[in-house]
Design a protein that fits this description.
This protein is elongated. A 5-stranded antiparallel beta sheet has the order 3-2-4-1-5, covered by helices on one side. It has a 5-stranded antiparallel beta sheet with strand order 8-7-9-6-10. A hairpin with a 2-residue loop joins strand 7 (about 360-370) and strand 8. The chain is of the alpha+beta class and about 625 residues long. It has 27 helices and 10 strands.
């Protein structure tokens, strides 16, 4: 077997594994790297070169810079102020949302931008009596389009620039992508306003199902069909539960019941004053005392069995009244959280992740693509796009939302007044971001140095709460994926595979002309990007684009740009990009919704880009 044939076999197997949701993409790329190394297709130095590649190092810095912008509230402030100028018209709101998201995505993470703006957009939809389902797909699509506005907007742009540099050509400059990105954005706006919006007509505003912030706990529980599953029970003297911790009682195992909180009556002084009531979230080490009132979640028949066997009694207050009508003096709340694409909870059960001990929050139920799991959700392996209904204190919820990249908070019960964010930190983050962009635009230092400097200054000035936050902000799964897949492109080039593919495309379409070859590259890249990472797709096809251009005697710049843009324009499936997956559950979309809206948009932008690129950058 020739080296080229063996490389193509590894490429095909790797691509198939990328398409299987059960396999993590970073582990697939690492396995591919190991096979390339063991078969001798790459040397050890070539195998490890990806981890020192400028693209990889630049992405690490950009994650840190983006986290500083998000943590200081700068992104939320900018998005909130800009989106609120939308007025009351649906079409106007859609256009403003898409423009704002696209502009932010040109400089920040697409996923982070969607996570920050999604609650803002949903809140505006509720205020204007517009179904969030009519806005969240445009939100996701605009984030992908906006990524091609600048060099740092998305990883495929950086890959394209590096491919040119490796071939001996000048790198792509910071705003070189802007003209084609603006044309793509204009085409996307026109399509979504006049055509795509009509494909989302089935989403009709219903306040009872809107994802607004500040929703009552009763309504939030109702969405998960949990009303009737809450039980308040008093623990009398002599009950077998008295003096034991919840860990010892093992109620979830024995009765399929979870203790959410404990209400305890206390007397603060020796005087014969009325007892004060303190409510606290329950944890594994919480000890039950006589006179406590516990709030449990679980099937009614199991609650009755527990009462009979352990001597408890149901209290008179109804669960619905307690959840909806009473304030939580201890700061307890309910919230719905969505797993992010890079969540460390994916492919784990909540017990394996030790979620309750780690975050101090109880999981009440799980929503998987519209199907609700109420019974023992902690036993289910979590998947990309799952949402969880959690219960606990505001403090714990804020820690989960801000200090973890695992989830995004979609909606929650009314929040007590919160101190305003420090405007000085937001201003500092804005100055750092502008300074980084200036250094990159003016080319005063190499782009990777400018990004790393900005990330370091974000940490030193306190824009990130701690150095640990900087490390947590990096999506290591993405970094490992890119670094480990780069040697596959090296093996393709060494074995002659890149030349073989390029010559095949040129021989098939070359007689028609360079524009036909450019269109062929765009189509092939677009097909791959619907099922595997856009970065991995760009890594594989950017060298092919350079070689095809060289074989035809034309400059490769528009060809690698076509590959980068096509890799980012992934709209046809909910798994085509992280933003698509994030809005799927929040907008209650089906696979068909993405097909109906995304496939035509894919075609429109593809035709526009293929026609415009040769005009902007002559062949």
């Amino acid at each position: 077997m020739t080296e080229m044939a063996l490389t193509f076999i590894i490429l095909i197997v790797t691509t198939i594994c990328f398409m299987i949701p059960k396999f993590r993409s970073d582990l697939v790329s690492l396995c591919s790297l190991l096979v390339l190394l063991l078969t001798g297709l790459v040397t050890p130095n070539e195998a490890l070169a990806g981890f020192s590649n400028p693209v990889v190092l630049m992405l690490v810095g950009l994650f840190v810079v983006g986290e500083g912008v998000f943590q200081t509230g700068l992104a939320a402030q900018a998005g909130n102020r800009l989106v609120k100028i939308a007025g009351k018209g649906e079409a106007q709101l859609l256009m403003i949302v898409m423009v704002v998201v696209a502009l932010l995505s040109g400089f920040l993470s697409n996923t982070g931008t969607v996570a920050v703006l999604m609650p803002i957009v949903v809140s505006l939809c509720v205020q204007l009596n517009i179904s969030p389902g009519r806005m969240l797909i445009p939100l996701a699509f605009a984030s992908s389009i906006g990524g091609v506005l600048t060099l740092i907007g998305t990883a495929p742009n950086l890959v394209a620039s590096q491919a040119l540099a490796d071939a001996g050509y000048d790198r792509i400059q910071f705003f070189d992508f802007a003209p084609v990105g603006l044309v793509a954005l204009a085409a996307g706006l026109l399509y979504m306003v006049y055509i795509g919006r009509r494909q989302l007509r089935r989403f009709v505003f219903d306040r009872a199902s809107a994802l607004q912030r500040g929703i009552s706990a009763e309504e939030l529980a109702g969405f998960y069909d949990l009303n009737g599953h809450f039980h308040r029970m008093a623990v009398p003297e002599g009950s077998p539960l008295v003096g034991k911790s919840l860990r010892e009682l093992r109620l979830p195992v024995l009765y399929r019941l979870t203790v959410l909180e404990i209400e305890r009556r206390e007397q603060k002084s020796r005087a014969p004053l009325p007892l004060s009531i303190r409510r606290e979230p329950a944890g594994p080490d919480s000890v039950v005392e006589a006179g406590d009132v516990v709030l449990l979640l679980g099937p009614p028949e199991e609650a009755d069995r527990l009462a009979d066997e352990r001597g408890l009694r149901l209290t008179e207050a109804s669960p619905r009244q307690r959840q909806a009508g009473e304030e939580h003096p201890s700061g307890l709340t309910m919230a719905e959280v969505l797993l992010t694409p890079f969540s460390g909870l994916i492919n784990k059960t909540l017990e394996e992740a030790d979620f309750r001990s780690k975050y101090g929050l109880s999981v009440l139920a799980m929503n998987r693509r519209g199907r609700y799991k109420l019974d023992q959700p902690t036993q289910e392996k979590l998947e990309y796009g799952d949402s969880l209904l959690v219960h606990g204190t505001w403090e714990k919820l804020r820690v989960l939302a801000k200090a973890s990249g695992d989830v995004v908070v979609l909606r929650h019960s009314p929040e007590p007044e919160n101190p305003a964010a420090d405007p000085k930190r937001a201003l500092t983050a804005g100055i750092i971001l502008l300074g980084m962009l200036a250094l990159m635009t003016l080319e005063l230092v190499p782009a990777v140095i400018a990004v790393m400097m900005a990330g370091l200054v974000m940490v030193l000035t306190g824009c990130l709460r701690s150095t640990d936050d900087a490390y947590r902000s990096v999506h290591w799964r993405t970094i490992v994926l890119i670094a480990a897949i780069l040697p596959l492109a090296t093996a393709l080039e060494k074995s002659g595979g890149v030349t073989f593919i390029a010559e095949g495309i040129v021989s098939l379409l070359g007689e028609i002309g360079p524009v036909a070859v450019l269109a062929g590259l765009y189509v092939i890249t677009s097909l791959f990007s619907q099922f595997i990472s856009n970065t991995a797709t760009a890594v594989l096809f950017a060298p092919v684009a350079v070689t095809a251009a060289v074989n035809m005697g034309v400059h490769p710049l528009p060809f690698v740009m076509a590959v980068a843009v096509s890799a980012s324009m992934a709209f046809a499936t909910p798994v085509a990009s992280p933003p698509n997956a994030m809005v799927m559950t929040a907008g209650n979309y089906s696979f068909g919704d993405f097909m109906r809206v995304g496939v035509p948009l894919q075609l429109v932008i593809g035709i526009v880009v293929v026609l415009v690129l040769p005009l902007l950058y002559p062949l």
